[in-house]
User: Fold this.
Amino acid sequence: MSADATATDANLNEPVPDEKFVRHSAGNVETRLEGMRIRGFLVPNDRFYVRSHAPTPQIDAASWSMRVFGTGVERELQVTYDDLLDLPVVSVVRALACAGNGRAYFDEDQHKPTGGDQWRNGAVGVAEWTGVPLSAVLELASVLPEARDVMPEGLDEARARRPLPLDKAMADDTILAYAMNGEVLPPDHGYPVRLIVSDWIGAASIKWVGSLEVAAEELFSPWNTTDYVLSGPTYPSAGPADGEPLTTLPVSSALELPWPARLPLGRHLLRGRAWSGAGRITAVDVSTDGGRFWTPATLRDPNMPGAWVRFDFPFDADDLGESEVRIRARDESGAVQPQDVPFNDGGYLYNAVVAHPIEVVAD
Ligand SMILES: Nc1nc2c(c(=O)[nH]1)N[C@H]1C(S)=C(S)[C@@H](COP(=O)(O)O)O[C@H]1N2
Ligand SMILES: [Mo]
Assistant:
């Protein structure tokens, strides 16, 4: 199959060339990490994965405004784009990763297929997000002591919405972002304004925010009751939800190699990235013998908590034919990528060690 350099996606604004993305269902494209030949720390906007449940809405920032309301604030108000630009600015460098990243491995490694897009490890990216702390906007409406949950809602046809507990909403690094990597937030990533909920699954970071409800009571939406919860044979249900809502991203890693990879005989420097919502990455180990013997990879600066770290290691392609590389990252909470992830209905948070297939070929 020849690569399509002009591919588009019916639900997205920007082109999605094969060189940059693996395409899944409409509106859902996975970054080819190996396609980033200059390997910057940040993923450029035109290579950043997109996960959208509905077409990108066309929104005019000049007429856009966001309603802040609910039983948890003293007064209701409308916030304009200019209002946001007038507030104090902050930037955070953070990973966004889809809860479904790695879903394909439930089927490939465990022979337990789940519905939904069959992402491998490219539904992840790191960007510098610029905007205002969500707390600054909520405080404009005066948050009441009894406030409990905050529900951002998207202006897309999916009306995507997912409540956050107040303490997470008020955290310094929960922001309403209007810029991404120094550019105006692209339409496919939430223009004019999206939420960035640091360290949590991507679904928490609502795009195209049109309203913020602050409530004195607990809030529910499809995204914390039936979707983006841990449900399945080994998981208990949780009150009105089918299972515990997913929050923190587990420690994970990805190689910057095609799947499967083809390498000529000889020594190669292989590379990848590791991330965790639970803190800085402290070690990345590599095995080329099926997971018996592990050697450390070299971590390359910067190593930023909440973002990711780049790593590399030498790989000797000595024998023609099939071989495999396994990566196992550890974070500062002590969590290590597991050998297995118990099956869950949504196919979420598959962060187990995977055997990356490499075919060694003659030049
Ligand atoms: N309004 C809205 N926000 C959304 C979504 C969506 O479909 N609609 N998808 C969510 C999911 S599941 C993920 S993983 C991230 C993806 O962000 P990105 O497309 O900028 O990479 O956005 C989240 N925010
Ligand atoms: Mo997601």
Summary: The mean pLDDT is 97. Residues 48-53, 96, 98, 154, 156, 158, 160, 189, 202-203, 205-208 surround MTE (ligand 1) (CB under 6 Å). The chain is about 10% helix and 35% strand.
